[in-house]
Amino acid sequence: MASPSLPPSTFEAAFGGDPDLASAARVAVSEALKVQPGEKVLIVANPCRDSIEISRALFDAVLKVGGRPSLLVQPVKAQLDYAEEALIAAFESHPDVVMSISAEKMGKDRSGLETPYEWDEVSYDHVFHYQLYGAKTLRAFWSPRITRESFLRTVPIDYAELRGRCRRVKEVLDKAERIRVTNPKGTDITIGARGRSAFSDDGDFSLPGQGGNLPAGEVFLSPELGTAEGLIVFDGSISCVSGDLVLDRSVRAVVKGGFVAEVEGDSEAAEVRRSLEDGAESARRMAQEGRISPEKGEQYARNARNLGELGIGLNPRARISGNMLEDEKVLRTCHFAIGSNYDEDAPALVHFDGLVTEPTITAYLPRGREVVIERDGELLL
């Protein structure tokens, strides 16, 4: 009697293949993450076509290098939604690698917000951030709102060239005491950078504690707390609670003492103001419901207007499309984020990025040295 045949072991065998997507997935798995045989890989997806198609290709690519993939599909989560309990529990298996291919966000960690994870005197309100940045037990990439078209175009790039570009920019930012950004639309803002180290999203996520976006291609830092002063004129795209917007009209943000004091403009500016208010009110509501302390509620609410990031786009194949994941990587742009920062000393429930095009970025170093990183959008390093 013949033994029963086993079901297909890959998504490609079960549903058919997509050679282009399979090739791009191999780049992500082998070039960016360098997944090794036997490693546990957690892939997070949503029931959306692009998310599922990319996640299937990544699952198969992990299998082909001998990894142990698990694919978890949860409902779509917006910026203020909680992740499913099953996802948070999946981190208890201590994955070596995490790939988040979410249509929006991974979702907040309810228990982490109520009782933060502590590591080396730093508090983390999400188990993912705790394992990535604190304990450094995993490495990861995350691709919110990624589309098949964008994945195919922006992931298979020359990573050696990108990493060299990112390294040169990071070296300057790491030495900077302050940074000034201007652009032809009227942006003129200065941020402090003392005690800050830049993060390089260069597509090398091969060691524990490393993580970033795919598509890769930016260098960014958290401004020194309370130092940002000036005017930002967002003129490319901007993210809000409702999603990412390509801007037909500029949005002006007046920054004082490290916080956004005013947001000026038309309907897009009104949407940004509503988003900042939602971020603050959600924090206060959590405190009223007893899920976080009143002190933490006020801290999160205040930081909804914190200037949390300056980033510089460096991916040669990225273009402004209304997907901030890709938009913030576009050459000849920089971006600022309002809300939480990456140094974990300005926690907030929200993080809204906005693009500034054709910037001039000047780093002021010790002993009066100045280095122009970009002039009118042209990278000079």
Quickly give the structural class.
Answer: alpha+beta
Number of strands: 22
Radius of gyration: 21 Å
Count of alpha/pi helices? 11
pLDDT averaged over residues: 95
Report strand %: 25-35%
Write down the domain tally.
Answer: 2
**What topology, given as strand order, has the largest sheet?**
16-15-12-8-7-20-21-22
Uncertain stretches of 5 or more adjacent residues: none
End-to-end distance: 70 Å
Major β-sheet annotation: 8 strands, antiparallel
Spatial shape = globular
Helical fraction equals: 25-40%
Description:
The protein is of the alpha+beta class. The protein has helices at residues 11-15, 19-32, 49-64, 85-90, 110-114, 127-134, 148-154, 159-175, 267-288, 294-303, 324-327, and strands at residues 40-45, 68-73, 97-101, 117-119, 122-124, 139-142, 178-182, 188-192, 199-201, 211-213, 218-221, 229-234, 237-240, 243-246, 251-256, 259-264, 307-313, 333-339, 351-357, 360-364, 370-375, 378-379. It folds into two domains: 11-142, Rossmann fold; 158-379, no CATH class. An eight-stranded antiparallel β-sheet has the order 16-15-12-8-7-20-21-22, covered by helices on one side. Strands 2-1-3-6-10 form a five-stranded parallel β-sheet. Strands 9-11-17-18-19 form a five-stranded antiparallel β-sheet.
